[in-house]
Amino acid sequence: MYSQTFSRQNPGCIIFLVDRSDSMRASWGGSNLTLAQGAAQAINKMLFELCVKSTKVHDAPMYLYFYVGIYGYGLCPRRSGEGVESALPVALADRFIVPLPELADHPLRVQDGGPGARPGLPVWYEPAHGYSTPACAAFEMVGSHVKEWVAAFPSSFPPIVCHMTDGLVTDSPYKDVDLAGWARRLTQISTDHGTTLLLNAFLSPSDATMTLFPDNARGLPAPGPGLFEMSSPLPEPMVHNAAAADIPVGSGARGFVFNADFATLVKFLAVGTQFNVHDETYA
Amino acid sequence: MRLMPELSLQTVVFHEPKPGAPDSEWEDGAGYRAADPGLGRPDRLVVLDGATTAYDAVHWVAQLVGSFVGPDGPAALTRDDLDGWFGRMQERWAAQPREFHNIYAEHKLQAEGSFATFLGCDVHLLDREGPHWRGAALGDAVLFHIQGGQLVAQLPTITADGFGYNPDGVFTRPSERDRMRSRLAFEGHRLQVGDVLYLVTDALAHWLLCAAATGTDCWQEVAEIQHPRAFRRWVAEQRDNGMKHDDVTMLRAEVAAGDVEVLVLCR
Q: A57 in contact with B at a CB cutoff of 8 Å?
């Protein structure tokens, strides 16, 4: 399981699911960012790195190694209310999981690189916050689209869902199923190479003790144990990524970070999303 | 006075891109330069394997092959000469004008650049010390020296389980130059008529080492390949039997008595 490489014949699917509840307005300890701003920066950075990986030469189109999605829950700026929605840039807003080269061509804006500097990094996702934390409904929506994707790419590495939140779910149970149940439904969707991977990052504005890729939930306050149980065991490619980044992971480590600061969130997402592409076979 | 027999090198290159890929996406490279006794230059062979994940590996490999067998290649396969050549290659790569269609390519070029595994070999057939080869390697492309059907020398000394996705190589980033210099491996061996050198990239090297370990007469098997279509069929068969799905390149150089009347370059 989880041995499939990311190639043009068998592209991967990486989804960012971000809490946009009101509490994401809190300042992130040790940085000058709010939780919402930090999550947005981390998402944009991961997307940029995936774009770079998928680029081979200066005069050829980007290769399609990855499909990507961005979902937000809590505030829905496009609907001017609360709920779950695709948080892709406006040009792609009526879609959910799109080929990375399309996303690459449609940033919301490009950061100013400064006078005389090279162009800055593209921005696809802007921070937002407001309302409550309807994570169950979010998992349901992501699950429905992930299911469609695996039907189209049954031989690919399973989808990876990176969930970032700072709070307690407010819509559980939803349709008589609690958050753990929705997470189970999501992580039961599989390709030939394994089930969908769910990584959970719990963001904390305080300087509370951080726990990265734990192999048990002992001593974690709520909602740590629940999020730990929902998080997928790290497959070998992610263990490899962690080792390459000098992050120690034990046997049975899960894709979970508790009380993440900004720098750790970036490392966490890199372990879960930054894989070598390898065109062993072609369509 | 004992006269040395006239020797020559019969050289042929076979290559095959990844399964289903067009030839334009073959990211290996191979080259050969005939000896020039007047200039005191030996025969020169090279095989490179551009990294799939790297920036524009096809052009980096082409630059390295062209230069290595050209007039501005390293004078000799010594650590100092190769280090100087690495520096010249990096400068030339950096000086190439490029118009970027997007910032991803620009960032990849500047932040990561390109790299390729390298295996070069000089074959001295007219040397007063007797015919011999001397090679230099950086990465997991491998030279096998076959004499009387037996493997008598290998460069680098890699085992079947030593192949990975992150081997050493020739990088475009100047910051890698010290490491490249220090990681170079060297080897050499005497040659005689009938000896065959195989310079192969990692997928085939790995297959050959595995096959040899099981007692298969793999050297005879590859010696019998005479045509690109036969090579293509043979590679397809081995891929079905577990050969890594990667670009495959084999440069075969056989020491023959007398002049070579025909040089075969199979593409």
A: yes
